[in-house]
Amino acid sequence: MGNRCAVIGVGQTRYQTKRRDVSIAGLVREAALRALEDAGLTFKDIDAVVIGKAPDLFEGVMMPEAYLADALGAAGKPMTRVHTAGSVGGSTALVGASLIQGGVHDRVLVVAFEKQSESNATWALSTHLPFNASLVVGAGGYFAPHIREYMRRSGAPDHIGTLVAVKDRQNALKNPYAHLKIPGINRQMVESTPMLWEPIRYLETCPSSDGACAMVLASEDKVTGTPAWVHGTAMRSEPMARADRDTVSPQAGKDCAADVYRQAGITDPRREIDVAEVYVPFSWYEPMWLENLGFAAEGEGWKLTEAGCTAFDGDIPWNASGGVLSSNPIGASGLIRFAEAALQVRGMAGEHQVDGARTALGHAYGGGAQFFAMWIVGAQKP
Amino acid sequence: MPSEPLVAEHALEFPGGYTRTTGPVIGRFLTELRDGRVVGVRTAEGRVLVPPLEYEPETGEPVTGDFVEVGPAGTVMSWAWVDAPRKGHPLDRPFAWALIKLDGADTALVHAVGADGAKAMHPGLRVRPRWKPEADRIGHITDISCFVPEVTAMVAPIRMEYRVRPGRSLARFLEGVRDGVFLGGRCTRCVKVYMPFRTSCPECGSAISEEVELPDTGTVTTFAINNLPDPRAPEVPFVSAYILLDGADVPMIALMGDVPAHEVRQGMRVRAVWAPPEERTMSMANIRWFAPTGEPDVEL
Amino acid sequence: MREVAVIAFAQTQHTDHDEGLTDFELIHPVIQEVKERTGLSRFGFTCSGSCDYLAGAPFSFVSALDSIGAWPPISESHVEMDAAWALYEAWVRLQHGDVDSALVYGFGKSSMGDLREIMTLQLDPYYLAPLGLDQVSFAALQASAYGAGRAELDEIVRRSRADGRNNPHALDLGDPAGEEFEVAPLRPYDVAPITDGAAAIVLAAGDLARELAERPAWITGIAHRIEPHYLGMRDLTRSPSAEAAGRAAGVGKGPVDVAELHAQFSHEELILRQALELPAETVVNPSGGALAANPVMATGLIRIGEAASRILDGGAGRTVAHATSGPCLQHNLVTVLEA
């Protein structure tokens, strides 16, 4: 895993449907300047910049690192653009951490953003070439059959997805940056919303947001303030078209978790991890990922959700920030998970701080649940 | 039979229009307006009134003689939307009346805002004057034709055109579909049959050369009921299903038909419904959908 | 830093037209070739470079993953940049010390769309892209600012095309001819040709490199730098980011037998020679360079592959590879390779 690396600054923008008040540069600067302020640094102190986002079709700006170089203080420095589908925010953090772990740099600024309102998410994600032989309608249309299969295999009752939809939105009420804030959110409210892609209801899906998130990462010698130490980093990808691919609990997710736990010395994630920020864009993915990430045995994940274990006051809070279900600037969503995990172990998560959080998981996935990025951060130096 | 009521047109109009004397304060404002500037006047308490009055509205005390340039940009405080403009309105298309607090002013100016629609209006909207051409300005409040939103977004039409070929794998598969056959490819190393046909194995990466003709029957492994319309589906709701063709090791995603959406089941046996041979092309459109065969469901 | 070397390089026979292959069909044989050549079927890390706007659809890298045998699941990442930057990411990953090999690949089919206009989309979306400033036009602005002599440019193109004709992977292009301008001062032949192609490189660290290659091409320096974007705020007569990257990579610390420069326009070679302070005796672009084959998103990686090949085949002792991104050499990556 190389040299020690820590998060010393986190910055986020307010997430909302349309950030009409800012340019693209203004949006990423808002997050970047807050991260620098948190770290007590300026652009001058940064050695390299890594920027991530989902497809360029969202903003119609190709390879935006070129136009954003000076906006992010990167002139005269190395700058890298990462794109690994929905997991990109997580991968961006890992590429940045790698520069420090590899001993190449001491202070790296990582930024991820999406300004979805410049176009339309379904268009940007579902545009495909002619001759395409399959019938997939948006991200929900893609994931709904796999959720159905999970429900069949596990025998989970229908209301589990509703519970997650309520819980994450309740958490969002504590997060000043969260996009969806629905006071009084409850099961009835979720159940009264229409099925979009059955079995997925409207309020069981993530919103479309504009927003950016940034982190300052530092080598051990350059740590200032309250660090979140990186205890493990891992990426895994698997082919989409492979025969017998388990789309409910993909092997790449299991392998990625095993790798990151091994580095962090975790053998029982449910007990040893205090808080998890996991990429749950559709509510049913909470029980599915509980199993995939080893927090519960196969077929048992929904029981943890139902028992309230993943709630803010549960024994293993998942998505105390409100998660992707409450804020989803796609390219940044993974980085937000990683950053929120860091905030928790730094004790700086504010109203949604989980008491005594010492070890946290940040998780992101993308494509057809085939790209995974994860890290474990801790309050203690590894 | 009632007779036509007797009606006549009538107007009260002073020929040529009234001639108003402005006094020093309003005159100064309109003079500045004619020159393309907006000024307010400072009150004794230090507030800036725009448009300027000769007196402090709350107390009636005279204002100072201190004129201050404000704006020209300002912030919409509140507005009313006019869908059908009247003849005398400053604009002949739908627009908003608005209270606009110009930058540097402590009071709001009433004026028209030319916006694309009511949805474009919101409190806090930043606007700037659209001036009449200098030669047409006469020292009149309509020297500003209207206010318009500050530029906060721009339309960036992007259209990239491509010439796309299906690739060797898909072209071969679509030839089969044209002839009413599903072609798969067998990876001899992994002993797996890929559908649609492809030239390399996603698992081991080796080249695939062995073609396999697959039947047009299979089993629904899972599905979604889509309640959002899609141009590729004839109606809403429609079912997009993962169908594992008999003899294949990867499912294909296809439309279900000839069955109500809520009667589709995991494990259901289905068969492709083809377009008539004379309508077939090298396209997936040859398969209209998959329909239940009526065989017993398969245990998954 | 940990010793890391290029131990294998493969590229397609690049074409100036669409061969009817998808991206993943294009990349498959190249991946097979480097696997066979190294005997490796699994790599500690994999990284690729490609571009959605070039492919005409989002997620162009997803189907490529289906063609490289990524099972069991692999540790993998992707840059929406020339694959030379994927190689940089892989080199950094190998510095961690826990993995010893990496697969890097890049691919692009410029034949599908209008490359000149696609490249407009990487410009400032408020002040530049709305002008419709295309790739040849902004390059011509730089050529004009630099003030290159016509005879000098003609000679660069003549030499590149002649070398390209001797390179089985490059296009077969005749000597430059014609008096017309594409965008003055650039003539059509000053512009790299539209090309489809793919390339792959295998990196290995320390003993594994020594074990798998007779004469590994060791990366003794690698660095990249970006500079401000807006053309009117830069000195277009030089490339400060290439200068800085060259210094950081240590180009001047020894003789340079061969330099492979990612010059997509003839005048860029002159700017880059100056930026990297290449001595007159350095052989520049013996492969023909981008002016003889320019499979965008792989071209920069191919420069590294070609520079490494001169060492792998015993022909050179110290070579330099350069890759670029962004308008007018905005972003530059320099690699120094030694026997």
Describe this structure in words.
- The complex is a heterotrimer of chains A (382), B (300) and C (339).
- Chain A is of the alpha/beta class and 382 residues long.
- Chain A has a domain at 5-121 and 208-222: 3-Layer(aba) Sandwich (Peroxisomal Thiolase, Chain A, domain 1).
- Chain A is 34% helix and 19% strand.
- Chain A has helices at residues 24-39, 65-68, 88-101, 121-126, 138-154, 160-172, 187-191, 251-264, 269-272, 285-292, 301-306, 323-326, 330-346; strands spanning 5-12, 48-52, 79-82, 107-115, 195-198, 200-201, 210-219, 228-237, 275-277, 359-366, 371-378.
- Chain B has helices spanning 23-34, 168-178, and strands at 38-42, 48-49, 67-70, 74-82, 95-102, 108-113, 126-131, 144-149, 182-187, 192-194, 210-214, 217-226, 238-245, 252-255, 269-274, 287-292.
- The model of chain B has no long low-confidence stretch (mean pLDDT 90).
- Chain B is mostly beta strands.
- In chain B, strands 6-5-4-7-8 form a five-stranded antiparallel sheet, with no helix packed on it. Chain B has a five-stranded antiparallel sheet with strand order 14-13-12-15-16, with no helix packed on it.
- Chain C has 339 residues and is α/β, with parallel strands linked by helices.
- Chain C has two domains: 4-113 and 194-212, 3-Layer(aba) Sandwich (Peroxisomal Thiolase, Chain A, domain 1); 115-192 and 217-338, Peroxisomal Thiolase, Chain A, domain 1, CATH 3.40.47.
- Chain C contains eleven helices and ten strands.
- Chain C has helices at 23-38, 52-55, 60-65, 83-94, 115-118, 135-146, 150-165, 206-212, 240-249, 266-275, 299-312, and strands at 4-11, 45-49, 76-79, 101-109, 196-205, 217-226, 258-260, 283-284, 318-325, 331-338.
- In chain C, strands 3-2-4-5-1-6-10-9-7-8 form a ten-stranded mixed sheet, with helices on both faces.
- In chain C, helix 10 (266-275) links the parallel strand 7 (258-260) and strand 8.
- In chain C, helix 4 packs across helix 11.
- The radius of gyration of chain C is 19 Å and the shape is globular.
- Chains in contact: A-B, A-C, B-C.
- Chain C: InterPro entries: Thiolase-like.
- Chain C: GO terms for molecular function: acyltransferase activity.
